[in-house]
Amino acid sequence: xxxxxxxxxxxxxxxxxxxxxxxxxxxxxxxxxxxxxxxxxxxxxxxxxxxxxxxxxxxxxxxxxxxxxxxxxxxxxxxxxxxxxxxxxxxxxxxxxxxxxxxxxxxxxxxxxxxxxxxxxxxxxxxxxxxxxxxxxxxxxxxxxxxxxxxxxxxxxxxxxxxxxxxxxxxxxxxxxxxxxxxxxxxxxxxxxxxxxxxxxxxxxxxxxxxxxxxxxxxxxxxxxxxxxxxxxxxxxxxxxxxxxxxxxxxxxxxxxxxxxxxxxxxxxxxxxxxxxxxxxxxxxxxxxxxxxxxxxxxxxxxxxxxxxxxxxxxxxxxxxxxxxxxxxxxxxxxxxxxxxxxxxxxxxxxxxxxxxxxxxxxxxxxxxxxxxxxxxxxxxxxxxxxxxxxxxxxxxxxxxxxxxxxxxxxxxxxxxxxxxxxxxxxxxxxxxxxxxxxxxxxxxxxxxxxxxxxxxxxxxxxxxxxxxxxxxxxxxxxxxxxxxxxxxxxxxxxxxxxxxxxxxxxxxxxxxxxxxxxxxxxxxxxxxxxxxxxxxxxxxxxxxxxxxxxxxxxxxxxxxxxxxxxxxxxxxxxxxxxxxxxxxxxxxxxxxxxxxxxxxxxxxxxxxxxxxxxxxxxxxxxxxxxxxxxxxxxxxxxxxxxxxxxxxxxxxxxxxxxxxxxxxxxxxxxxxxxxxxxxxxxxxxxxxxxxxxxxx
Length: 697
Description:
Blueprint: E1 2-10, H1 15-35, E2 43-48, E3 51-59, E4 62-63, E5 66-74, H2 79-88, E6 98-102, E7 105-114, E8 117-118, H3 119-133, E9 153-160, E10 163-164, E11 168-169, E12 172-175, E13 177-179, E14 188-190, H4 194-203, H5 210-226, E15 231-232, H6 236-243, E16 250-255, H7 265-276, E17 279-282, E18 288-296, H8 305-329, H9 334-337, E19 345-347, E20 351-352, H10 353-369, H11 385-394, H12 402-406, H13 413-423, H14 426-434, H15 449-468, H16 482-495, H17 502-511, E21 520-521, E22 524-525, H18 526-546, H19 550-557, H20 568-583, H21 585-603, H22 619-630, H23 639-650, H24 653-662, H25 670-688
Parallel strand pairs: 9-12
Antiparallel strand pairs: 1-3, 1-9, 2-3, 4-8, 5-7, 6-7, 9-10, 11-12, 13-14, 15-17, 16-18, 17-18, 19-20, 21-22
Helix pairs in contact: 5-6, 7-8, 10-11, 10-15, 11-14, 11-15, 13-14, 14-15, 15-16, 15-17, 15-18, 16-18, 17-18, 19-20, 20-21, 20-23, 21-24, 21-25, 22-24, 22-25
């Protein structure tokens, strides 16, 4: 058994493509091994800016003989179908085929024996195919060749059993050499053994193991920060990106000029993070420090002095621009910028950002004025109508400021600063700042009630518009982040503990659009389709965050009365209560009894009619009947009603167990049998009043 080393050495691979490419390489090689009868081989992958590599250990030198079967057409299939199968497999008649039979009849089978061969020969055939067929999100050609790779491919390291494989791709011959660090060790390295790959590269100033590189960057950066009494601003995404930009990480600390430290810290961090890939730092009091850490890709004789000076110079120029925008933007009130939003298109079919702002204002007003449909502790509790209304009116105005034009990632944040400064009300500023939240599954929801009102109105307006024009998410494509918008609303309702008539909210949002936009699919209106979309997203949220299966949600939905069928918060509480009930001993036993009864009634349906107590011949029947009659399944007017219904069902557990332990339902006497079938049917009716247990998997 021997080892395999593959490395594709190229110009710099974009940081975000390295890890996915390594996973894809592992998948493709695994599939190749399986196709050759090689299973359970652990493959290691490595990626760095200039290389994508894989090591496989303990592989066979020789491939064993394999047998393969190809299922052909039925024996009585049309002649053309049989001829096509023969031709595809290089046969002239059916003499070499075996006939087998299954439930559908006789069919032909071609049995082939694939002879064993040197594994190195199989690899030499496979590697050129692997390179040519490798898929990148973006690829390029170079020179006069036809090969496409993410960046120009320079060398192929392909070693098996200590020897270089004899294969070639577009004039690039495979060999046993690779290259070290481009500047510190550019000479060729000879690699003959898998165990030498990482160590020889490290001697040549390359850390090919991405996980180790990332850990080292974090460790060294934290140590450098600590030497100045500082800590890193938590940013796992940036650390991961930087790990894909360097092969030999060297953290260096630079200074931020004091003149820029009164610019909002989000601006400073954004400039450093987005444009320069610098790590921001905080002091012991949590304040942004006038320092940054850059990760160089080289060790220098001056210990990075020139690199630091160059980075400080570049940052100074960037921050000078940001400082200019900060000063200029504050000269114009946000309210005075609103007319400019008429020139900014939200969507060709949905109007301008000015139109969207008007619709958001109307939805915020909807919450302030609503009466019907909000017979509960409503969403706007503790919210100031005036603050929410003003925040809604100004929430998009920062899109036409110089700062947001230059740094789009600061939308909302800058509006919050400008509003707080110009209006003198932090509440309005905070609502504007938060109204894009949550930006992802791990981002916090808006901190204030006003922020949640504006955020929900903004997101629902977007969803309503795209459902009206029938531009919906498909598969993995969601260019307008509609799934994220719906999840944001769901999270604000559940995590904020607020109830909402979703139907009414959807309709209010859609009514703000021209009637000409109305679209439909089948028999469902756009509003109903959007409601169902929310329910599906709710199932996913509850599955991922609360470990509640979709079938449990479906069983709750099946019995929820109209007032609760689209109340996200209440549905989540009901689903959680049902999950807890089913996980209990009483719930599990009742579910088993329910399924048993369903099975009996499927074979012997109960006839319509009242239960006749005079036909009871067993005390267990009487106790069971009394328990069913005493059962109190109340109309669901609150979550407490639902929980109480489940608790009432739990009281049936013992009478049900005793009944089935002592009573034979399928009695020989027709009247007794029908009476018992009616009795257990009453159990089904009672349980289905709390949840449709037939949907529980």
